[in-house]
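HUMAN: Mind sharing a backbone?

ASSISTANT:
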Amino acid sequence: MVIAITGGLGTGKTTVLKIFASLGAATISADDIVHNLLTREDIKIQIGEVFGRGVFSGDVIDRKALASEVFSSEKKRKELEAILHPHVFDEIEAFIKAHKGRNIVVEIPLLFETGSQNRYDRVITVTADRDVVIKRLREKGMDLEEVRQRLSHQMPIEEKIKRSDFVIDNSDGMEKTRRQVERIWKELLER
């Protein structure tokens, strides 16, 4: 079974992914794939051609500068996605093939936005109260305007919930989240 985890920015998708890993799932994160892609020379060249040297610090892509560019322009966001998404999907597919026969959980924040939900047997959306999300993102160093800008580029969480098989509320601490994950995992394994 291949399960997708999605949700809004700052809801705790990675935390949920780690809990699934601790329960024995093979796990992979689209965000981790992107971070690795941003270190590849071929990707850096493509990004440099589209965004210029302003998104670099020396020979390294400055992720904060790149984010500032892509979240201020729909056109630039789509250009970055056109560079990265094919590689992300290829790596996820390779991971799924390499772990055939195992239960796999894939963290993919833009699952519905990319139209890739039909590739998965089940979809889980991770949510958190808006105040909790803003607090988490502020703790990561984002200013309030940056938080609002990024959240405005995502599908409303209510829409993600409607399209999901399961919902995990990650507002109230690790123990409650773990119990929800364990309940869903048990239910999935019994099917």
Q: What stands out?
A: Strands lie at 2-7, 26-29, 56-57, 60-61, 104-107, 122-127, 166-169. Residues 74-98 form the longest helix (25 residues). The chain has nine helices and seven strands. The radius of gyration is 17 Å.
